Amino acid sequence: MGDWKTITVPAPSSVLDSKNTSQYTSEKKMSPSSLNMQQVLRLPLPSSKSTHSFFSAFCTEENVEQSISYLNRELTTLGFPSLYAESKGKELNLISILNCMNELLVLQRKNLRAQEDVEMQHLKLGSDMDHLQNCYAKLKEQLEASKREIVGLQERDRQLQCKNRNLHQLLKNEKDEVQKLQNIIASRATQYNHDMKRKEREYNKLKERLHQLVMNKKDKKIAMEVLNYVGRVDGKRGGWRTDKTEARNEEEMYKALLRDYEQCQKQLLVENAELRKVLQQMKKEIISLLPPQKQKPRERSEDGIGPVLSDLEDDVGELNKENMWELSCETVREQLTNSIRNQWRMLKNHVEKLDNQVSRVHSGALTDKDVISREDHELETEKLELEIQHCKEMIKTQQQLLQQQLMSPCDDDTTVLLQDCYLLEERERLQEEWKLFREQKKNFEKERRSFTEAAIRLGLERQAFEEDRGTWLKQQFLSMTCDSKYLENVKTQSATSGSSDQDNHLMNTRSQQKKPRSLSSVPTSAELCQTIQHTPYSSSPCAISNKTTEESKPNQWEEIYREETE
Amino acid sequence: MNFSEGFKLSGLLCKFSPDGKRLASCVQYRLIVRDVNTLQILQLYTCLDQIQYVEWSSDSLFILCAMYKRGIVQVWSLEQPDWHCKIDEGSAGLVASCWSPDGRHILNTTEFHLRITVWSLCTKSVSYIKYPKACQQGIAFTKDGHYMALAERRDCKDFISLFVCSDWQLLRHFDTETQDLAGIEWAPNGCVLAVWDTCLEYKILLYSLDGRLLSTYRAYEWSLGIKSIAWSPSSQFLAIGSYDEKVRILNHVTWKKITEFEHPPIIANPKIIVYKEVEKSATVETQKLSFPPTRELASSLFSIPSKYDISQVPMSLQYIKPVADRANPRIGIGTLAFSPDNCFLATKNDNTPNAIWIWDIQKLKLFVVLEQLCTVNSFQWDPRQPRLAICTGNSKVYLWSPAGCVSVQVPMEGDFQVLSLCWHSGGDTMALLSKDNFCLCYLEREEVK
């Protein structure tokens, strides 16, 4: 009954050691250790410390009786005899305890062995499993490989069958051909045989005839009996055959041949020329069909028609010139055909493009505004047709009405009314026109009045201008002569009358002197204008035109007139 | 269309004179010369034996009558009925006889084709030409009559000799690359000679007038070859009919084939007009029956009238499969003829012997097919216009023109089977020949509807 706490319990793997230690423990301590063992078996990896504590944990000095009773209970449930001496009481049956202990040890050993066995089996099973898995994998691989092989073999089989079929077909063909050749050979053979037989028959006949001839003494004469000889067709006598005739014959023959060839060549030339003309026409038409370059620069960039066309047009010019001379050299011919080919290609492209455009339009996308979709076009045409119909109907109705009005036999009142309404219309129109006319007349009157006033003013101004001029001239003259008296006289004269007589007088007086040549230079217009504006004229407007004959001052006169009218 | 009465005839020997004024016919050993318009007998000549061949001279002044059995050729003059001429070949025998183009020489081919003797009616000279070839068409004259081509065979090789007909000078002599020459024919322009080989070999050679080989044409090997050829009147085309039921057309510029005409037994193209001869159901009106039966009635009782119907395409023609193991089988294109205006070509395929195929040469397409009830014996184009006359061995004559075709019953007493026909050179008259009789058929203008 010592305390075996100090005994360290090893790890559950060394079961034997624990068994040994359990042997040395007292019976009291046995149970905790075995219990601990059991617990150890249950627990995964208890540490040595915990087992150690378990040993002491179950039974301590305080709960010995309890632990004994517990153990007894457990053992009895397990089928072991009771630990107590009697069914009740606290006397422990040592023998039964020892037996129980032994039994438990045996059991433990058995369990351990069983465990070992199980573990061994487990290991074996594990290794078996691995082995089987490996086998399985290998077999799977083998299966795959064999499947692939099968597929490959099937493929080969199929190919071989195909080949077989082909060979059969070839064989059949060859057999057919052989049959055909055999037939041909057969027919040729029959033909040969037939010919051969014919020849042999002829040969036989020949032999017979020869025989006959040899045997026959009387020979039938080969001759011609003729009453008289007939003349030749052309009436001439026959000639001897000489070298000359031979040469002539040869010549004739060659002439005939040459004639024939020349005729042939002529025909071919004519045909050639016609065809060339046709080609030229075609070329021109194709060029006209193709879109012109200027309007569609986009197309030019797309197709490159532009530069090519221009080149071709140059060529056309060249070719036209050349064909006029009817050259038929190789290069011209090639050029023509090449150009036609190019243009045809371009035309084809153009047509294809148009087709594409049309198809695009049909599918709904209008890319080119110049191209009108067919439906729109049709709508337009329908609209136009309707309009035309409307107009036609209108015209018809109007015509009918007109007819009615002209020819309808209605009573006098209505006719009078109708006439009246015509007249009314006309009257109204006439009235309108009268109104217009009167307005215009008024306007004209106004203008005329203004014109007359202007003319009157102009006349007055002119008069004043003339007076002014006269005074100015007088001044000039007087200033030149330095005679104040003369100036006064002149002034008085000018004050009384301002007509042209004075001017003439002035001119006369001026002409007497030779000095005023320098002074006869036209005075500045500004000075004159100033002087003239202050002196209006009184002469009638009709005289204005007469007065404009003065040469020295026409410019200023016009300026003055303009200033007045403005 | 008027028919003259029938006259006696033997041996299908009835020929119009080249100038068109006279008609020569033979009855046994008598030669009868009639006027074409009135059919009055102008001359009657008696020969020594049954006449086997009759030919007018080119100027229509002389007629030769050949009697092959006796080996005699007798020549008669129309201007001087008392004039006579007899050429006796004696032991040499006679197989063929013909005039030269100038009408003053006679070429006799002796037996076994030993030689050709050229007898002159103007001089006493005789010429011999050795080794002529015994073939279908061994002698050919140019259309203008200046040159003659003769096929010869020496040492198992074929040669061609060209002679100038005016003085019989040998112009050219050259060999041909043929196995066994079957025939020669001049082009109408007289400058090209077509030479074709035996039917075992499809080969046609074209020689120029001066003997140069212009071209060779071979369509295929081994099978049976050329059966017949025809030149177009303008010499532009050469049509070659062969045993493979096709006609090949060569052009005169390159001598290469420009097209091939096939003759299948089934016509499928709907653009082709097919005229089929059908029998009209003969309705004999009982009231009109009288005794003795009139001639028209008699002929109508004996022969069933027929008319042409336009058949629906596709239709199949009567096809005869030939006996395979016989020589010279009845297959292939046996007859070819161009119309005088060069627009049409009429062909007959011996596989479908009831049908005549008319091809449009301008379009190089099949134009019309005529199917008859009986086998076509012969057909000939009108020498002036594209009108084809056909006879099939019954008592009808058939005419086709682009306007249409018509079947005409020949109103003759008894059994008149038209075996052959020939046109007058003016184109409005036709002679219909049967075994024992012949009659003339006068056509009006625009006869065919």
Main sheet: strands, sense, barrel of chain B? 6 strands, mixed
DSSP summary: helix tally of chain B: 1
Described by its quaternary structure, the protein is heterodimer
Low-confidence stretches of chain B: none
What gap, in angstroms, lies between the N and C termini of chain A? 162 Å
Report the portion of residues of chain B in β strands. over 45%
The side-by-side strand order for the widest beta sheet of chain B comes to: 29-28-34-33-32-31
Radius of gyration of chain A (CA) equals 76 Å
Helix-residue proportion of chain A: over 70%
The coarse overall form of chain A would be flat
Q: What structural class is derived from the secondary structure elements of chain A?
A: mainly alpha
DSSP summary: helix tally of chain A:
17
**Poorly predicted parts of chain A:** 6-30, 36-47, 294-312, 494-555, 557-561
Number of distinct beta strands of chain A:
1
Organism (chain B): Alligator sinensis
Pfam families (chain B): WD40
Protein name (chain B): WD repeat-containing protein WRAP73 isoform X1
Coiled coil (chain A): 129-216, 247-285
Characterize this entry briefly.
Chain A has 566 residues and is mainly α. Chain A is built from 17 helices and one strand.
Structure commentary:
- Chain A: Residues 129-216, 247-285 form a coiled coil.
- Chain A: Residues 493-566 are annotated as: Disordered.
- Chain A: This is Afadin- and alpha-actinin-binding protein isoform X1.
- The complex is a heterodimer of chains A (566) and B (449).
- Chain A has 566 residues and is an all-alpha fold.
- Chain A has helices at residues 15-24, 27-42, 48-58, 64-78, 94-215, 243-289, 297-303, 305-324, 330-363, 374-407, 412-481, 484-496, 500-512, 516-519, 525-533, 542-547, 554-565, and one strand spanning 223-226.
- In chain A, α2 (27-42) packs across α3 (48-58) and α11 packs across α15.
- The longest helix of chain A is centred in the first third of the chain and has 122 residues, at 94-215.
- Chain A is flat, with a radius of gyration of 76 Å.
- The model of chain A is unreliable at 6-30, 36-47, 294-312, 494-555 and 557-561 (pLDDT under 50).
- With 449 residues, chain B is mainly β.
- Helices cover 2% and strands 48% of the residues of chain B.
- Chain B contains one helix and 41 strands.
- Chain B is globular, with a radius of gyration of 23 Å.
- The chains are: A mainly alpha (566), B mainly beta (449).
- β1 (223-226) of chain A pairs antiparallel with β10 of chain B, so a sheet runs across the interface.
